[in-house]
Structure formats: C-alpha cells, structure tokens
Write a structure and sequence with these properties.
Layout: H1 14-35, H2 45-66, H3 75-94, H4 105-113, H5 119-139, H6 144-191, E1 195-199, E2 205-208, H7 211-216, H8 220-224, H9 237-249, E3 254-262, E4 268-278, E5 286-293, H10 295-309, H11 319-336, E6 341-347, H12 350-357, H13 359-376, E7 382-387, E8 390-395, H14 399-414, E9 417-419, E10 422-424, E11 428-434, H15 442-458, E12 464-466, H16 469-488, E13 494-503, E14 509-520, E15 524-526, H17 528-538, H18 541-559, E16 569-573, H19 576-579, H20 584-595, E17 602-607, H21 608-613, H22 615-628, E18 631-637, H23 644-649, E19 654-657, H24 659-663, H25 669-684, E20 688-691, H26 697-706, E21 710-711, H27 722-731
Parallel strand pairs: 11-12, 14-16, 16-17, 17-18, 18-19, 19-20, 20-21
Antiparallel strand pairs: 1-2, 1-5, 3-4, 4-5, 6-8, 6-11, 7-8, 9-10, 13-14, 13-21, 14-15
Helix pairs in contact: 1-2, 1-4, 2-3, 3-4, 3-5, 4-5, 4-6, 5-6, 12-13, 13-14, 16-17, 18-20
Guanosine-5'-triphosphate binds next to strand 6, helix 12 and helix 13.
Amino acid sequence: MRLPLLRSTSAVTTCEVFRVASLFFYIILLAHLTMTGSLSLALSSASRLALGLLLPLSLLSLFRFLRPGAIASRQWLNLFEMGVVMLAVSLLVLDRSLPLIGLPWLIAVAGVFMLPLESGTALAAACTIVLLSMILGSKLNMSLSEWLPHVYATLFVGLLARLLDRTLKQNAQALEQAKLDQRRFDAIARATRHVIMIVDARFQIMYVNPAIQEITGYTEDEMRNLTIKDVNHPDDVTGRREKLRYLRDNPGSSIFSRHRTRHKNGNWVWVEARGYNLLQDPAIKGLVFSVEDISERMAYEVKLEHQAMHDPLTGLPNRRHVLKRLGIAIDAHQENGARLAVLVCNLDFFKSLNDIHGHDFGDRCLLELTRRIVAELPSSDFIARFGGNEFVVLTDADLAEAKIKAETLLAAVSQQFVVDDVIVKIQASVGIAFVNSTHKTPSALLRDADAAMYQAKERGRNRVEIFDAALQHLHTRRAQLDVALRFSMERNELSLHYQPKVSLEDGSIKGFELLLRWHHPEHGEIAPQEFIPIAEASGVIVPIGLWVLEMACLQVRSWSALQDTVAPTIAVNVSMRQLLQSSFLQDVAAILERTGAAPSSIELELTETSAMANPLQTVETLLLLKQMGFRLALDDFGTGYSSLAYLQKLPLDVLKIDKAFINGLCSNSGDAEIVRLILALAHTLKLETVAEGVETEEQATQLLRMGCHLAQGYAFSRSLSADEAEQLLRTEAVATFEAC
Ligand SMILES: Nc1nc2c(ncn2[C@@H]2O[C@H](COP(=O)(O)OP(=O)(O)OP(=O)(O)O)[C@@H](O)[C@H]2O)c(=O)[nH]1
C-alpha cells in the first residue's frame, strides 16, 4: 500500500507538514545518533534520559503519521513535545552526543516544532531556544562568534516556520472558500430550471448543468459530445449562426435569441437564450449561455396570436389579420411589383334575415356560407371574415381571374340551403380592387374595394363591380360631398322646393311633395339622387330629415291659417336610417309639439326598398307613426320587391307609382299593364294612388282613365318655392293644366 505523505484532496495544513516534518526529525535524529555511535552501551545517564524521552516521542510521531487525526493537535501538547525534545537535545549536546554547531539540532527544533504553535507561543518558544543555545554555548565554552550565527539561524528558521504556517492557513481558507463557492454553484446549477452552458470558440459544449436533460432529454455527457449548432432547428440556422458569430467575435458582447432546439425524442423545443462572451476571462474561457424553456409560453402566445387574428365564429382570419396581410402585400408590391386582388364580399340584406329568424340562425347561415366559400376557392387564396356580414378574399389573381373568383363567390353564396327547416337564399355584392403604387396603406386598398362593393350594392346588389378610374373619380367626389354635406345645414346650403300634387279630376291642389335641394358654392347644384345616398350612408340624413320635417310642419301650420283654402298635405321623404333611430319617434313628437302642426297634414313617404329592408322594425315604427296621426305613403312603388303579404301589414294610406312606369305608359304596353296592376292592388288595399313624374297631358288623361286620382310632374307644375306654392294655393289654379 502506498502511503501518501500529504493528503492531496484538500489544502496542505500546518499540522500535516508538522506531522511529516516531526517524523523526519525523529528518524534523522535517531539515525544520526546510531550512525555516529552515540548509542553505545556506555551511555551516560543524561544520554539515557534523553533517549528515554526521544524514543516514546518518536513512536508518538510515527503513530501520528500513520493515523492522521487520531491525536488531536493541541497547543499545550505541541509545546510540551517541543520542550521535551529541547530537553533531550540539550542533554545530548551537553553529553556531546550531538554537536551544538555544525549539526544545528536546535535550529531544526525551531523549524519543526514551532510550526503548529500560535504566534505568541511561537515567539516565546523561539526566545527559549535562543536562550537555551546561549546557555549551551556558555556551558560548552564556545565563543560568541561561534554560537551567535547559530542564534540568527534559529530565529530565521523559526520565522520561516511561522510564515509557512500563515501561508498554509491562508491557502486552506482560500481553498475552503473555493470549495464552498463550488458547492453553492453546483447546488444552484442543479436546482435551476435554466440551462447554463459554457461552450468554446468552436461552440463545442464544455460545461452544461443537469437542467439540460429536463429540457432536451440529453444527459450532460451526451451534450458534451455536441456543438450547439448540432441541435438548432433548420429554419433558425441562418439567423442563429450570425448571432453566434457576432458573439464569438466580439469580446464582452452579449446576444439574445429565441429559437428551437432539438429534443432527444426528435421534437423541437422553443427556448430563449442569452449568451455572453467570456472568452477573455481566464476562469471561463468560453461563451456562457443561459437557456430557458419557453415552449409553454410560446404555445400560449401562439394561441393568443391565433385568437387575436381569427374570428371566433367561423375560425377564419379576421379584420386584424387581413390588415396585416395587406400590409405585407403592399410592401411586396412596392418592392417587386407583386400582384394582389382584394375581393370584398358583403351579404345583401343580411339584417332582414337576422331580424326575421334571429341572430343564432344568422350565425348558422354564416357558418354554412364560410364552409362553401372555403370549399369553392383554392386554398392558396386568403379568405377572411372582415366584419359582420362581410368576407374578404386576397388573391394574386389578374383582372380576368379575379372576376371569375368573384362570380364563384356569388354562386357559392347564392345557392339556397336549409337551416332549421327554413330554406335560405342569400345573395352578396362583391367589389374588387387591385393593389397599385398609390396604395400606401391597407386601408387605402380596402377603401377602393369597398367603394366597388358599394357600387355593386347601388347597382342592384348580387353583382360584381371593379374599382376603376371612373369609380375612383366617383369615389373621390363622393368623399368630398360627404365632408361638405356635414356642413351644409349650418352654411344654409340646403333649400326646400314644393312639387304640387294635383287631382286628375279637377286639377285642384291636393298637396305638395317637399323636395330637398343642395346648392354647394363650389360644386353648384347637386342632384338629390347623388347626395341623398351619401347622406344616408354617413347618417347626416338623420338631422337633415328632421329639419325637413320641421320645415314641413311649420309650413303646414302657416297654411292652415290661410283663408278660403283647403289645407294641403305636405309629403316628406323619410329615410330608413331615420326610422332605425331609436329616438326618431320622440324627435318627431317634439317637432309636432314645437310647431303645433296637425300630423294629418303631413304625409311621410318611405321608399319601397328601404321599407322592405327591415320589415319587422319598419312595421312597428310605422304603426306608431300612424297612431300619432301621420299619413303614410310608399314611394317609388313597383321598383322594389314588396311581398304582397307584407305590404298588407304596412299601415299605408298612399301608393306612389314610380316615374319609370309613367314614362312608358302611353308607349309601352308592359308599363301600362304594370300601372293597371298597381292601381288594382291599391284599390284592393283601399289605398290612394299618386302617379309620379307625369310630364304630358296624354299620360294624365290615360291615368285618370285607368282610375288614378292624383298625380305630380311637369305636366302640372315645376317644383316651386314656398311663396310660389302659397300663391298657387291662393289662386287655386294650375297654369299649365286644364282639367281632363
Ligand atoms: N347573425 C349574425 N349577424 C351579424 C353578425 N355580425 C353582424 N351581423 C348583422 O349583419 C347585419 C348587417 O347589416 P347591414 O350592414 O345593415 O347590411 P344588410 O342588411 O346586409 O344590407 P346591405 O348590406 O345594404 O345589403 C346586421 O344586422 C348585423 O347585426 C354576426 O356575427 N352574426
């Protein structure tokens, strides 16, 4: 068995040096005595005493060497041992068995036995040795110059022994601290869920903590055979390589990255890594990484991102997603001219479906339409639900292809289907716009596609329109008028004209239709057909409509005071937008109260199309208006899609026959037939009829013959100012008409 002189697993301590040094001391001393023949049989009693002291101490030292730790190191014991040795050496010196100089045994005693002593004790011991050597020197008649160097050497060796003791103690402390630090680091490295990794300049893993196994399934040893590049996801390689190079080539730099790393089972794990270049640090000499598993967070983020970008009902991408995709597409167009067509598909009259069958029913219809649209269009097209009843398709189609896709959309939507035993037939209007260099933002491109879609609505719905230069012009003018219209009332640009409504039998004035006119300082006279839809779309029609009604009420009130005239009715157009206002009935009641007008003199006209767009709500509001005393008229009759059953439910007084049929009354048998049918219908429903846009005497005669009682149009009068209308009432005559 090989016996180590010093334990190498920990710092060498003073005690250990002493353990070895003292044994050597005794061995050499005894060997010297043996070799010099000092241990002859004729030993003096002093020498025998010295040997009697030294031998047990030698055995004690041997025991101490062989069984380190068996004898606790105690100060008094060490001091005692030193004293005994000094005594033994002194006896031997005096007995001349040992030399005082030449072989300076006391110097050795100072060097060995002062090692384990405390500072103060060691000083005292040193002084004692010096004193002893002086005594011995004088006893042996040695001169000062002979033994003085011996004293210096004793002191010098004693001092060295002290320094050695201190150094060893400091080393032991430093080593203890290092071990403590190491244990702490190991504990932290084991406990943390973060991977801590040190790699060399070639990215070879030098150190990694056990957390690596939890994240990647690889053990620490398995990882040490890899480089960090070996476990990178192929899609992350390029970006990561650049970052790693930057880190390696820039001392003191740090990087941050989110990437995927390979799990031993073949899956990919999302991690977030921070890297620090400590290649220059002599203790590290590597790149240090702290890596955190963020798979759960990423999964959560992906889920959140998906929720934020998708419509919860249909699962299609939502408005936000469309805007993002459009942003990317616009950038691609600016960079390399990439094509993009935007198809906005808005369902027609979807509100009616909701109103009649309920919102849940509407939702199921939306789901069915989604299923069909997705099935009909190629998967490369981006299909989104942009809003309530609006879908958007983004595709890189050219004009012809986009048209085909739009027709496919219309066909997919319009195929009838059954939900809850109800046969549903929905139609849609589609607007198409193509990205061009003027589109700087997604909303600019969507605005154009929207404009085309609204054009499709205006042109009768269930059709496709493409945004082109003409539409662009129209759109720009529409936008300008939209803004201008908001200021039209306060700038007094609106005026009212009175279109007489006369009896076809005797030509007497039965009332007037109030016509709204708008004169804009720059754009001039703007036709109602142009600005009314704009006002309806923006909602400005609501205050304007109330203003018109108030004017009509004031006028009616003023005419009711006229002597010798029958108070005429004034017909006022009411927009659907007004009817849908929850405050409409209150506003109307307030006007009646303010003006004191009799509601029976006011005829509220609404168009057939708008009345049919929201049947349930319309019927309810109209019934309440009827209860308030208003007369109700259905304007432009014949142009819409009234269901007769529904028509019967409306509390109407008047049907106004659309001008389109009157135009062809005397020349087109089809139109004449329609007019005849409308008159028959009105007769059955006990409704008054008014023919609109009568321009010739022939038409008036024909209408009277067919049973129509009232008419309006240029055949009788142009539209008049309030004063002219009043004058007309007073004279009770119509210049251009002679009773038929
Ligand atoms: N069922 C259902 N209806 C919705 C949803 N989101 C919006 N809507 C309805 O869609 C309808 C849209 O109505 P409008 O914008 O007036 O248009 P419309 O009735 O389709 O008429 P036009 O567009 O003029 O042809 C409204 O009644 C909304 O309440 C939804 O998630 N589910």
